[in-house]
Amino acid sequence: MKLSSLIILLAIMSASVLMGACQSPAAGEETRSETPFLWENANIYFLLTDRFNNGDPSNDVNFDRSDPTAKLRGFEGGDIKGIIEKIEEGYFDNLGVSALWTTPWFEQIHGGTDEGTGKTYGFHGYWISDWTSMDPNFGTKEDLARLVETAHAHGIRVVMDVIINHTGPVTELDPVWPEEWVRTEPQCTYQDYESTVTCTLVKNLPDIRTESDQDVELPPQLLEKWANEGRLDQEMAELDAFFARTGYPRAPRYYLIKWLTDFVREYGIDGYRLDTAKHIEEDIWSELGKEAQTALNDWKQANPDKVLDDNDFYMVGEVYGYGISGGRLFNFGDREVDLFSHEIDAMINFEFKESALMAYEKLFASYSEKLHGPLQGVSVLNYLSSHDDGGPFDKERVKSMEAGTKLLLTPGASQVYYGDESSRELVIPGTEGDATLRSKMNWEEMESNVVRNDIPIAQVFLHYQKLGQFRRDHPSVGAGLHQMISESPYIFSRIYETEGFNDKVVAGLELQSGKKRIDLNGLFEEGTVLKDYYSGEKVVVKGDRVTVDSPYNIVLLGL
């Protein structure tokens, strides 16, 4: 079966889940105001731009980056046009995705490093040479504008991956930035705050002097590059205007803040994922967040017809080692820091892959307790696999269905890593380090509906669709209070209430197939018509329960 046919078939199947959503409510069916988007409930799809989908083969090789590389260490052709193609196909709509996080699209170093078993190029986007330019391997600024516009047209937000900590490595083609801009030693030892922040992450990754308040001149390689591209005067005039408006010194971090927030002001980017957030002085995130909010306000004022909602700018921090059990604080060894107090709305939850080993109720109840207790007002972004985590929850893809259920039904926001929904393999023979996690998206396997560990990929994909749509349509799934209704059969509720809007759902897991009676704990009035988002069946509340007759062991009930 061709991928397009498979997607159409699955879309038809999953569309039945949403039947009646656009119809007038039947007698006894409660009406709902427009469902608000909450970052606390977001279903964020994270992809490596170079590995997801190749929409334009003509841009596959640039800057003569064509030397042989170690396995999966070179550019593979994925680009922004390929992402747009999948948005327009409805791929993300069917998955219930509410935000896209892509790896950085900035211009990368032109050379490669030669450590390990072969050369490595900056295909991943984290080795920046120019924060003001797009890397042509990924696309153009016109492509980026279209990406954001297309995503927004589908109700999908765009999260930009930002790097302030370091430049790209030094190569034969990429000179080190001036000493007043970067340090090349010492290398971080992570023993305390200083040895985590004022140091280089790894060898040959020059560390931006983010602590400095001293005026610095621009690197000569940037000035020469901009002059050759005919935009030196424009870039300098924009910098003059920025520093005049803000009053900031011309210190390294403020140049970067200007360049990063330009993308928000120009294209309407909705949020940032903050790379290596614990390796930068925390006050800088406050400075970046405030400038990003100003930039988003400016974009909204200039584009009132394109504004999705009145949400503030969103920032989620990558603080390696942070887990939800730590509450608001991260311990550097010699001090604890509350990063949430520095404009950061959520933290990537590195603990979730261990939490997912818990039974459902213990997992859900403990996360609800933390998010509505010590973390009230902020959130976490849960994930089970990622681009640089060598110990994901289900590395062999033997628990794909369980992984989807736990990821998408646990309180907090969810991060689906590209291929989680299609059992993309995470163990690639011949790779070194994190390259094994970064293979090309397995579209061909989806086309042929490969069976992996006795489960057809199409079944996993449909499972993620149903759970994702349920989460997207019901803020209570990620942001609501959790309560168990019965232990056996396992049934629980989530309730989210705010001024002008309330949402409530009831779900059951590990149920019997066939006819199932689901107790509702008084949450819905007699005669209310509910939808089971898993089977697509509509049921009527009778005597504080509904009966669902389906071949599945999952029930997802909501209005």
Would you write up a description of this structure?
This protein has 559 residues and is α/β, with parallel strands linked by helices. Among the domains are: 41-158 and 166-266 and 384-473, TIM Barrel (Alpha-Beta Barrel), CATH 3.20.20; 479-559, Immunoglobulin-like, CATH 2.60.40.1180. Helix content is 29%, strand content 19%. The protein contains 16 helices and 24 strands. It has an 8-stranded parallel β-barrel with strand order 1-2-5-8-9-12-13-14. Strands 17-18-19-24-21-22 form a 6-stranded antiparallel sheet. Helix 1 packs across helix 15, helix 3 (80-89) packs parallel to helix 5 (141-153) and helix 9 runs parallel beside helix 10. It is globular. Residues 1-33 have low confidence and may be disordered.
Question: Helices and strands in order, then pairings?
Answer:
Blueprint: H1 3-15, E1 43-47, H2 49-52, H3 80-89, H4 91-94, E2 99-102, E3 106-108, E4 128-134, H5 141-153, E5 157-162, E6 182-183, H6 194-197, E7 207-208, H7 220-228, H8 232-246, H9 252-267, E8 271-274, H10 283-302, E9 314-317, E10 329-331, E11 336-338, E12 346-349, H11 352-355, H12 360-371, E13 379-383, H13 400-409, E14 413-417, H14 443-448, E15 451-452, E16 455-456, H15 457-473, H16 476-479, E17 481-486, E18 490-498, E19 501-509, E20 514-519, E21 529-532, E22 538-540, E23 545-550, E24 555-558
Parallel strand pairs: 1-2, 1-14, 2-5, 5-8, 8-9, 9-12, 12-13, 13-14
Antiparallel strand pairs: 3-4, 6-7, 10-11, 15-16, 17-18, 18-19, 19-24, 20-23, 21-22, 21-24
Helix pairs in contact: 1-15, 3-5, 9-10, 13-15
